[in-house]
Amino acid sequence: MTKALRPRLLSLFLLLALGSKTGAAADARFDLVGPRIDVRVTRGADTLPIASVPNLQTGDKLWVHPDLPASQSVRYILVCVFLRGTTNPPPPDWFTRIETWNRKVREEGVFITVPPEAQQAVLLLAPETGGDFSTLRSAVTGRPGIFVRASQDLAEAGFEQARIEKYLASIRRVPPSDAGELQKRSSLLARTLALKPNDDCFRRSPDTQFTCLTQTGTQTLLDDGHGQTIVAALSSGSNSDFINAASYTGLAGAGQYSAYVGALVDLVRIIGNLHTAQYQYIPAIAFPQGEALNLRLNTPPSFHNPKSVLVIGLPAVRTAVPPPLRTADAKQVACLLQPSVVLPIEGAPLVFSTDFAHQLVLHLNTPPGAPAEPDIRLTPDAFQGGLIVQQHPDRRTPLREPVALATSAAGRSKPAGPQRQSPPVPATPPASGPVTLTGTIQGRWGFDPFTGPTVPLQLEPGVGWHVVSSAGSGAPDIIAGRSAQLLLTSTGAGCVHAITFRPANGSTEIAVPFKAAAEPNTLELTLPIDREMKPGELSLSIQQYGQPKADILSTRTFAEPAKIAGVDLHASDKSLLVTGTNLTEIATVTVGDLVFSPAPLEVGSPADRVAADALRLSLPQGAPAPPTKIGDQLSARVALRDGRILTIWVEVSAPRPVVSLLQKTVETPADSNISLPSADDLPLSRHLAFTLKTASNFPRNGRVEVETFDGTLRTVLTLAPSGGLILQDPHTIVATLDPLRSFGPSAFGPLHIRAVFPAGSSDTGTTTAEVPSSGAEKTPSSRASDWLSLATLVRLPLLTQLQCPADVDQSCTLTGQNLFLLQAVSASPTFTDPISVPDGYTGSTLNVPHVTASTIFLRLRDDPSAVNVATIPPAPTSPAPEHHIPTTSKPR
What we know:
By secondary structure, the chain is mainly β.
């Protein structure tokens, strides 16, 4: 609202504060029914009812007919006045006196021509009295500015009130108990009518929301959105920002608050300032319907002096301003095969609350050379949130018929339908026609044609459905167990009304939410994939209007793909190392014509640990060394087991160390009574000496890593003092390992070793780097040899005594410590009829099979595959009892 409104606002509140006699007229509720006046407008050869005329122009002929009841007891004169601005009083011939009681007037009405230079038109309806016409004419010529402003504000208030009443009438069509539908329809009505319903209504209980939205008064619909109504804002002097933000509706009706504020202020000023000795003036808001000006008053008329004069505004004399229609959703494609088609249009609320816009059609913009399509009728419907595409009554196809003006015999013309119904037009174009095209909204705004926005349309179901990635090329992977975002495209996506999917192992169709994507002919889907869903085939069912059978699109879900952190390939190496996650999904890695397959896991190495972080792949056995060189940039294609391909660049690094195990020696204590026949078994308490041979010089900062197969225990041997390594020569290394000290008393199982040459080392064995201490970690650029099996750590119990009775049918007693390290004991090297040691056994004696010598045979828990020999000095034999009863039970 302009700054010019502020003095008017101030005047309003001064009047209210001083207790004006016309204070009652300040009520904004125009709920008193007034008299009816019929008006038609003729321009050239066309005639329209007043409800379809947003503006007058010079030369228009007005047919004015006061439609008062036959029993009317008070004679009214009707004065039609044309105005030409606030500072230029109208001439006498711009006033037309109409005696409503005249028989000719009652039967035929009066024709009035809009004079040149006229800008506004006002009707004054007053009771007959002495000097009535001259008094009314003197009031207008004496203060034309008040009537100019009154005509403007009456028109604007009528527009605003029409929008509000349209909202209230439409919202009453919703069942009060349906809170969801109530909010949906309220949002559509607010958008098309440019109103602001009270959002607090939707925070109330469902049974009170309807009453809140339809309560009496305009303040609810004109809420400023911040918990403050217009009336409250007007009564607060600090809300100048709000007042400045409010704007006039204008004939196009583009503002949110429109002219309600200005109309309220000026109508109050009319009440306070327009009066003579004979008359006082009260506003009458017109609600045109057809050719009838249905009047509503907010003050009861008075027939005592001063008598009441009804001031009625007519459309302004001006150039037509077409409605600024715009699409509410530019991405939405209207499917003309849909049973009920709504074009979401907004921006001009008077299109939906008045009859100014008529003969609306959707003109199809067919491609050049294609046959022209008939226009499709449109009907504004604020309840549906846009323009409704009219359908044939007997079939669900758009009603495509010519629309024209029909002139009646009486010389009056009004919008009418076609004189005859055109033959039905097929709902879809021929198969060779376009799937999608555009349509332009056209119609008349009063007498003048106007062109609205162009909207995308679809005339037949889309074909060629396929999944694309967000980049527009290829289909994205759908991972089982994770919700997936997909883009689905075809020749047209506007006719899709439902999408479901079914997993390969599922029997229930699952609904898929979707919406239009930014790209044309594309839908954005969200697949609600259950966590328990397994990888496999997946079918999407796409339901479209105009197509009885659904389109089936097959795709598949995949397991979580391998994520490749890096590929380590060394020059002339027959294997490579892939690091990352989910590496069990890798089938092969192809570098050029070299195909690497996952290498067999070492005995005792858990597959989950290896696959979790690193995977070694090798060329086929017997394949020659590849001709790869240091610095080569190669492309590696990682093929997953489900057929997907990942591509990663690989740079060939320096050759890996080549190491062989020459020999190893286990320390044998002189007092040991358990001999281990397997050369691979290494007692935890004994030292191991072994010799390694390298193909190239062993660098001074090189190291040897010793590790359990599961990677939980690890130690590093170096050339540092007390590091455990001694160079015999540049290629030969003698190592000493103390397992108990390195791994602790709970270590057991297979061990393997490898040599690691840190970055910067050369084949000469010299380096500028420091020699790492024991326990140093391998850097990402280090070079490591293949793992070599070293030994199997076993823990030995301490066996101190074996006592056997003279009776061979009785078991012997084995005494010792840590007997739980034994799995089983037998008296035979073939391990027949063994005695098993219970899990977690904590005793110091054990009943074992009777032996005739001091030798028993053992299986250790740490290596149950080997049969070990224990020679234990026998204890003195116990004498047999005189009355010995043999037992057949086996010893425990």
